Amino acid sequence: MSDSGVPWPFWPKSPYLTSWQLVRLGMPGMPKRAQHINRKALREGWALVDSPFRKGGRLYATWGMPEPFRSALEARMEAPSAAPATAPEMPQKASQNITENITKPATSPPVVASIPVEKINMAHSAPRQRRHPGCVITRDDQLKRYVLALLVAKPHVAASHVQRAITTDLKREVNLRTIQRFLRRWKGENKTLFAHVSNPDRAKGSYQPAFGTQTENVKALNQLWELDSTPADVMLVGENGKATRHHLVGALDIYSRRGRLLVCPTSTAEAIALTLRDGILAWGVPRAIRHDNGADYRSKWIERACRDLGIEQIICPPHTPEAKGSVERFLGTFAHDLVELLPGYVGHDVAEREAIRARQTFAKRLMTKGEVVELKMTAEAFQTFCDDWCRQYEMRPHKGLDKAKEKTPFARAQAWTGDVWRLEDSLALDFLLAPAPGDGSRKVTKKGIVIDGRSYIAIELGAMVGQTVQVRRHPHAHGQIAVFDVHMERRICIAENAQEMEDERRAEIAVQAAASWRKSMSSGAAEHKKAGRSLGLDDVGLRIAADGRAAAEKVAAFPKRSLKHRTKAIEAALAAEPAPVEIRYGKGGRPLNGHASLWVQWALDTFEERDEIDRTTLGEMLLSSGLRALMAMTEIPAKALPYVEAAREQKERAAS
Questions:
Q1: Rounded to two decimals, what is the model's pTM?
Q2: CATH of 225-414, one of 1.20.120.450, 3.40.50.2300, 3.20.20.70, 3.30.420.10
Q3: For a designed S-S bond to 406, which of 267, 412, 423, 490 qualifies (C-beta 3.0 to 4.6 A apart)?
Q4: Distance separating alpha carbons of residues 561 and 360, to the nearest angstrom
């Protein structure tokens, strides 16, 4: 009996007791706090049931406790007087819940009634029901629809703004805490939907199902390559000495997971063609390439090169980076590897870039006045770093090869015993990947083949006036183009720039071309006339009428013509030989043939005497870093720099 006269509710007559009751029994060895008893019971596996009176509460079975505590409880049950004399008073509500049906005798000790087992089972199986399920927003369809529509339209709207919007539009007052609880509960129950409306790209990467893999059908080496471009996270020294952010063009062989990287100022069709050339010379010709829907990848240059090489193009739908996830992962692995330790690293995103800028700003305050910070990494040095990293990448175990016997890209490629398509001569590849005007087709006119205002002539073109041909700029000889038939199955000739020829040679070619045209026309006409006489074309009208009558009487179906798919581009390119090695000179010492460096050096030496066309051509040719390296030119001469910048701007506008 407590001091207040309320019966002691913790007399151990019930088979189930709470942790709070066990604390107040004060048994030896029993923890003194309820949370410690809960931890001990969980650790030792005491028998328990859910409390029917308090949600989340536990009742511990007296018969399921360890031996010392069970013996102490039995002793208490045999000696009721051992109950504490000064037990704390229970609140009236808790006393009524736990000691229902308890009577208060006049002289005998209080007896605590046991909790009925049926009530415990009912509480364990049936969840607790609220008197008013849901909040005011959940119960009101109009209010719920308004709040959810506002949340989807403005995913990051604050609860206070939702409250003001409800007051303004619906003329209703809703408690701010109610709105906060509803928004928090709805976002927790609809994580995928909320992520989709707030950040679709992140939701696609986190929640879009990816049960299979797009590479499981790749069973052969070079069966499929994936290509992609990305800005490099490193500032490099540009051609003008200023810090510029270059781009990376990556190629990945899906079967072996070998990769290659090319550093370029911007991702253009030329850079992609150079990446293909590098990969083809190292690995062989791929059967197909997969890339995104960018203008540089869908350019006529790349389409023409793939058609000539017999490579299938697979273009991913717009805004689907997961369609080429392997090369995306390859570029991501490179960006998060040793690149972060390079000089000039600028970070992967805006937040990291701002943090790096903040550190640099603080570092500038520690520098000596007048000290200059210089970038030390050039594009050439970064390209060397990329090549070394790709070689190391091929030697590391790859997660995509877990199911294969070979765990590294290098071992996977070396274990391949099937066929690999390769080119016999790199010159053929250079021809097929060389730049060409538009889609590469040009019509032969009376003045020859006109490209960018310049006429290219050859004796063989005299008999082809009016016909359409395919042209490619000669990769190793300035002022020359290779001419092929329209189907890229036969090489016709090597044509030269007429403006850069000597007058005597140009006149000689003109005379021979005209004679070739007359001979072609006369021989062709004579042959056709002879064929006409042998075929008896004088009475062709009568035969046509007779044939019409026969066709009206019966209809005959003829089988359709079928062609076997083949490409002659490689054979035609192998036959394209450069001009004779002997160098000829025109007016003013102008080189008419030979390597492009001869013409560049001549144009620089006589720069003041050159017209605008020659200076513009010089600027376009000096854009090539390979040509400058061949000429050991460390920097662009100041007199030609304006034309180089103009050529670069024109090239960037054309690429965009």
A1: 0.50
A2: 3.30.420.10
A3: 412
A4: 71
